[in-house]
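ARCHIVE CARD
Drawer: 12
Card no.: 0347
Subject: one protein chain, sequence and derived structure
Cross-reference: see card 0346
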Amino acid sequence: MSTVLVFDFGLQRTGVAVGNTIVGTSSAVETLQSINGKPNWPGITRLIEQWAPAQLVVGMPKQLDGTDTPLTAPIEKFCNQLNGRFNLPVAQANEQFSSIEAGRRLKEVRQAGRKKKVSKEDVDQLSAVIIFENWYQSQ
């Protein structure tokens, strides 16, 4: 395995990153806007065709005590749909605090000279990068 496509799934937006398991790095790709509250399947299909991943990874949030969140069921449905549509293995990775960490990293970059305001799309993409890092370290 080498290429992994990573999703920070949300009901409004899904951040996407691509990771490489050989070197253990990942990069933000884009943020897909949901379509009428549903995943952006045309965008996901395009990215899977473009990157030809061997593995898909989806961030799964948990409460501090390890219990499910309100997003658990929609994310599990998304994972099942990914597997059914693309016949690729789908792993779930801990994404607890990934958005907070992404916001912190982006603010540090902005303070170091970047003038642009931190957008939700930037946070979603970097969250997907952090989900890859968490997943990769657990392998």
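Annotation on reverse: The first helix runs from residue 41 to 51. The radius of gyration is 14 Å.
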